Amino acid sequence: MNALTTAGTKDAQPQRAFQPSRIRPGANRLRLQTLVRLRWLAVFGQTLAVVIVYFGLGFPLPLGLCLAAIATSAWLNIVLSIRFRANLRLRNRYASLLLAYDTLQLAALLFMTGGLQNPFSFLFLVPATVSASTLPLKRTIPLGVLTLIVATLLAFYHMPLPWEPGEPLVMPAVFIGGVWTALVCGLGFLGIYVWRISEETKRMSDALTATEMVMAREQQLSALDGLAAAAAHELGTPLATIALVAKELKRENTSSDRESEDLDLLISQAARCREILSTLTARDDPDDKVFGHMKLGVMIEEIIEPLRVDGTAIDVSVAPQDGIAHEHVREPVVARNPGVLYGLGNLLDNALDFAVSGIVITARWDDENVSISIEDDGPGFAQDVIDKIGEPYVTTRPAQWRTDVTSADMDEGMGLGFFIAKTLLERSGAWVALANRPQPSQGAIVRIIWPRQVIDVDAK
What we know:
By secondary structure, the chain is α+β, with helices and mostly antiparallel strands. It folds into 3 domains: 12-215, no CATH class; 222-289; 292-459, Histidine kinase-like ATPase, C-terminal domain (Heat Shock Protein 90), CATH 3.30.565. 56% of the residues lie in helices and 9% in strands. The protein has helices spanning 12-16, 20-23, 32-56, 63-83, 92-112, 125-134, 137-156, 173-252, 257-283, 289-292, 296-304, 338-354, 417-427, 452-455, and strands spanning 293-295, 313-318, 333-335, 358-365, 369-376, 431-436, 444-451. The strands form 2 sheets. It has a 5-stranded mixed sheet. The longest helix has 80 residues, at 173-252. The two termini are 34 Å apart. 27% of the residues are buried.
């Protein structure tokens, strides 16, 4: 078994075709309105700082050039707001270009106001941090390199720091080197930290969306039973009317044998339709305990029945825990939960994919817990990823250890299969544990454990 597979063999093509962008098209892109608002905040802050330094503190600085640099950002915001919709989501290339502009505009202001001696030089971290949180790594790295280049240039080339006239303030080289080092460290730490957090958030969001899609599909399939019952109920009356009218027409018809045969056919087909509808209404009431509830062993057999077609051996053992007599602890009765059925079916599919000779399913229960173990004799879980199993998009495919797998079957997958199965089972109250079989045996073990009062409908 390999838990790091695609979303299961059920509905394999839709699962393999899954891409986060198909679930949330453009959702990860940076909105133009976000950049515009951040730039307006920068324009306001820069203007306020320049005005306070020049008019409030009386420090000399190139006021006209500074205001011109600030006005350039303001005009850019105005043009963007007029030309494009505020809710436009930018392509990554254009978003990175706008953030690069913000870096260069800040560099121009710092050049005119002391370079890295200016305490506002820490603002270099802002565009790179925004890029790390919203743009892919290949766009963030060039922006970080640009920031390092301009910061290095500003350490050597800049206009004097605004200070008291006649008393120029010159910082020692060690101080400038410390500021540059702090910027480099901050850029690296914040960039990597924010990027990792953002990536994990996006991956988890996309994977949960895929899980919700699977759940919705399973619920739709379950809802078909109720729709069939409603259709059977609604169609019963018109079918009865058709049968009654056909019988009356046959009783009145005494002239044509051909018409009589047609009426007999119509009556027989109406009766057949009623039989079909009565079968539907007899089996798919979701509140019917006979259909909606089943014993644990019956649920397992229902799941594995479609999986026996490939000839792989499937051994099933359903019994109380060792040392407990059957008459003392009855077999749990479980509800027909689409999430549990799908989750267990997915894990069994995975076990069959990687089993060499067969799999073993063991169901045990006592007064407190109900457990199902799935064991195979495949390669087991890889040691370098076993701690990550259960996270979305973690996969070891293609299955190169199999010698009987064709290149067409070696699907690298999205690594969502086990994540979806584990999420659905945990939503039902289960705890999912993973391990490899002890040496010298080979294979993987997946154990699903429920508190009995959670899974057993008669214990609630």
